[in-house]
Amino acid sequence: MLSLPSRPEDAAEPPQVASAVARRWMPPAVDATEARAVAMLLRLLLAVAGYQLLTLLWSPPSAGLPGQALTVCGMLTCLVSLELLRRRRLHLSVAAFVLSNLVLTSVAYGYWGLRAQMQGQLLQLLPVLLAGALLGRRALWLAAGWLGGLLALGAWLDAAAGFYLPMRVELALRDLALAGFGTAMAAFVLDQSLSSLRDNLRIAQRRGTDLARKRDELQLEMHEKERSREQLVHALKIENVGRLASGVAHDFNHLLALIMGYAGKGRRSDDPAELRAALQGVESAARRAGAVTRRLLDFSRQDVARPQLLDAARTVAAMEPMLRQLFDARVAFALDTGGVRCQIHFDPAQLELVLLSLAANAQQAMPDGGTFRLALSCREPGNELCVEVSDSGHGMSEEVRLRCLEPFFTTKPSGQGTGLGLAVAANLIKAADGRIVVDSAPGAGTCFHLWLPARPLPDAPRQPEVGVTIPY
Q1: Secondary structure of 298-314 in HEC code, one letter for each residue
Q2: Shortest CA distance to 126 belongs to which of 196, 83, 190?
Q3: Which domain holds residue 85?
Q4: How many domains does the chain have?
Q5: Stretch 450-468: mean pLDDT, rounded?
Q6: Where are the alpha helices (DSSP H) in 269-347?
Q7: Which residues pair with 1 in a beta bridge?
Q8: Beta bridge partners of 335
Q9: Residue 376 — pLDDT band, cuts 50, 70, 90?
Q10: How far apart are CA 411 and CA 403, in angstroms?
């Protein structure tokens, strides 16, 4: 038995059949409309062939040889049409079935007349009309006209046999009227149904075309929006790259000032020890310059930091020479470690850069000199460290104080600042589970309180403070 697709998706991709015989009978993929026609014809041929076989098996002996011969011819017609269908000759298969059945029906009506066919007339005429409908509207009405002529022929034969019996003539005319009306109604219903289906198909195809066009327009619009979004992101990246480049230049200015300070100190001194210390300071500042790019990456790309346990007092005390180089003689520098004995979990390079950024801002806030103070304190029982960084500069207004930690916010003229320093410092403090508090007022200076989680130092004997090496 053939197994044909009856849905569009089945037509596009036939089911996988395990049997090799079934795969041999399976026709190739066709379009959805033709697949439905093939499925309909296949069922019709199988139904008619089954009916012919039952008629041949159950027909009484009195049916005679002509009836059996017509039944066998009908079965052969179905088999030939099935073979043509298997060979992918849909239209030829339908035409062969319709013409063969019209010829056989003509023989039956011409031999037995109309009255003898009334009992199985529906099963004789309806398959021919259905198959004719597959060939189109014209083929349907041609088949209906042929069948109408056969009905008239059969009724004339019935009337001629009882020409002198008025009852027989009247009965033949009544049979002709009933059979003709039934055939015409069947053809009309099939024609209207097919016309409605064709109209719906045309509407569906037109709507499908419109939907495809709208889909293409929508895809084009989405592509344009995606390209616009990519261009906007690229523009923002370019803008941020410019800002970050300005920030790098800003921070390098601080480090270059530090290097120049060490160089000036070494130039003013003839003591080899002081020259060696100045060179070490230059080298340390150069290493810190390399850490500037990592600080910016930490801010923009959230790179993984390298935190470690630090002795807070010793680490900050080791930074004193570097911080002093940022200020001139008009600024009083004070560092008070407070004798705190606690450890913090922080990246040492990041801690240096945070304090360096705060000190640089303090130096710029005191162009005419002042006081800079860096103090440490640790609350009992030593679980929180406070780093206080204060200056006696011009201070900040309330509006500026509230926004000073925002990225890219700055009150400096264009080209002299990017607003990254305090934002980066706040970001690094927050990443270490700490917090930063800003106290400032116009003319009253500024004070930054950095609160960091801490833990007490272990009770181990302290080593002499010969300097702290900050890893990079």
Answers
A1: HHHHCCCCCCEEEEHHH
A2: 190
A3: 8-161
A4: 2
A5: 68
A6: 272-301, 312-318, 320-324
A7: none
A8: 374
A9: very high
A10: 10
